Amino acid sequence: MNQPHEDEPQFFVLEYITIARDPRTQLVVAVGGDQRAAGILQTTGGFLSVPGPRGDYHRQPHTMPVEQQRQGATAAAHALLLAGFSVHLDPTLNTLGTPGGDRQAAHRYLDQLAERARVADDDREVAAVLTEIAAPDDGLLPRLVQALIATWAPWAERFHDAGGEPDPTEQLMTTTSSLSQHAWRIEQIRNQAARRPMPPTATANPAATAPSIPQSAPPVRLR
User: How does strand 87-89 pair with strand 17-21?
Assistant: First the structure.
């Protein structure tokens, strides 16, 4: 058995650290790491140590602008990596990512989802696509609703402070509420599709048990 050479590097990973944006508060939070990691988060990323239900965690201040949040999160992640920590940085916070990469990735995801829907052969596959669209909290429509609410809330406040007409902000909120209801309905349709029984499997000798069917043109798949 070969013994490791003294001059060979020793690889090790300190405790795993996740830096991401909390979907409810929109705060950038960091979970994991030790006291040394806490110092790096505070000095390079502007994070604060906050007591949580499972011990202290770190978050950036409420008043930090979005671009500064991203810059601090990226700087902290790279400093932690250089210090030997294993880090997951939410791609939306990575300022070193390719410009437009998030949008392109979203477009690719939607294109793939549309293709899955086009080639779906049974109710289960349809239900899987509808799950991606309308699943509570994590589906496309619920996330779109949250983005619209995040748009409406500060906009409505500015309109109120400026004494402007609330009509456009009220229209946005009414439309957002309607979209939320439609997302719920699609979720119920998804549940119905998921509960439908699968079609029976073919018998060993279908020609002996099934009536003859005249040949016809193959069905046209709508695109």
Answer: parallel
Q: Which residues pair with 55 in a beta bridge?
A: 52, 53
- Distance CA(77)–CA(95), nearest Å, equals 11
DSSP single-letter state for residue 53: B
DSSP bridge partners of 19: 30, 89
Which position has the token pair 């929109």?
Answer: 26
Angle between helices 101-118 and 123-134 (to 10 degrees): 150
Summarize pLDDT for 89-140 with one digit per residue, the tens.
998 888 886 556 667 778 888 888 999 999 999 999 999 999 999 998 889 9
Distance CA 164, CA 171 (A): 14
Closest CA to 46 of 19, 63, 80, 69: 69
Output the six-digit token pair for 185: 């309905």
Position 210 pLDDT exceeds 70: no
Rounded-to-integer distance, Cα 125 and Cα 4, Å: 51
Report yes or no: 59 and 48 within 8 Å, Cβ to Cβ. Answer: yes
Q: Which residue bears the tokens 């979970």?
A: 31
Contact present, 110 and 132 (Cβ < 8 Å): no
Q: What pLDDT, on a 0 to 100 scale, did the predictor assign at position 212?
A: 43
Cα–Cα distance between 27 and 63 in angstroms, integer? 10
Cβ proximity of 9 and 17 under 8 Å: no
Residue 56 phi, psi dihedral angles, 5° rounding: -70, 145
Q: How far apart are alpha carbons 161 and 155 in whole angstroms?
A: 10
